[in-house]
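Suppose a colleague, Dr. K., hands you the sequence of a protein chain of 416 amino acids and asks what its three-dimensional shape might be. Before reaching for any lab equipment, you can write down a predicted structure in token form. Begin with the sequence itself:
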Amino acid sequence: MMYDPSTLGIMPIKPRFATQEIQNLLAHFPVVALHGAPQVGKSVIARDLADRTGGVFVDLDDPDPYAFVYQEPVAFVRQAPGKLLVIDGIHYAPELLDHICGLAEFGGWDGRFLVVDSAGCGVDHDTADIGHVTVHPLSQGEIDEHATPEDFVTWIIARPPVEYPPRSYINRQAVTLRVTRGGMPVALGCATTKSQARWCRNYTRNLCARLRNDVLRRVVAMLATTPVTEIVQARLSRELGITEREARVAMMTLRAAGVIIDLPGWHSAANKRSVSAAKSLLLDTGLTAQNVGFSAGEIDIPRSRTYFRQLLEQFVVQQLVTQQTWSATSFRLRHFRTRDGATVGVVVELVDGRVVLIDVTTNTQPAIEDFATMERLRQALGDQVIAGVILHTGMHSRRYRDWQYLLPITTLWEHH
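The predicted structure, expressed as tokens, is then:
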């Protein structure tokens, strides 16, 4: 039984940069799994890829395909010889993976499988025969419909010259609007900011109801109130009035659903006073801002300045996490803090141990003195520190001492 998506009248979608990465993996793996939080666009990407390659799209949320799987699983996986078979909702029938991987392992099969894994429920990331791609909310380059993917880390490790003024510049208010709208595809399609805010609030409410844990709502609300925070189980349980076990289970559930991004503490042999506690944040700044009712008009209100700085840091992390999917450079994201309060907001760690240090400020004209912590790390680690970057909301673009950069936050997606 084949499923024909053309009967649904699906409209063409805005190109997603993850699509090329999926196609690259399909050229090397017989099975590719698509991961990501609910509503980030996994199913839409998969359906679009099936349409454009002449493949077959099957949604196991539909009773008829599900019945076919239940009655004849072997015939089901053999229904598209020589083509791409896209299976959305693999978590409804995880046993299908055994048939698919068995078919791929024993050869004699020239087709390919793309399985859409909902909330990490069906596909083991450690399976060697499966390629994995994680889909995130839209990047700013995708929103602006760039022809090529942005790749800030690959760009900055080449220690490029900088331009003043930069080729592309948007003012502080426009940056703030991007931050507060986020990158969730459905929310961006809302006609008004009011309907967008309603969608974001409903998203977290419905997600927590779907995961059947009332504690999750309180944890998500806390993460929205403090956009970038170090999570300690004891403190979390104390502040929310829950047990440590409930706090641990709630965080594990949200991580499995892809709703939380974690930044572990970065350790350096040159600094024994660094802390290991991870920073945790929601996957999208739009969800964060709209769930507390924060708007772009509040950025200069004194009581909102700390919140806006944290939201801006979350935005930078979100963009870098999204770019990890297609970046030409493999990297991990960390943060750095010492017990005496010295911090670096984001540490980009390459596979060879070298790092790029990134701080975020709401100022439009940061100064060279803002590199103090990065300077101390550079003196201790030498060339292990490739670059130190301060991203800000102005148009000031400078390079100092070959490795220090003051850059507009727009450089994350407007580098050339």
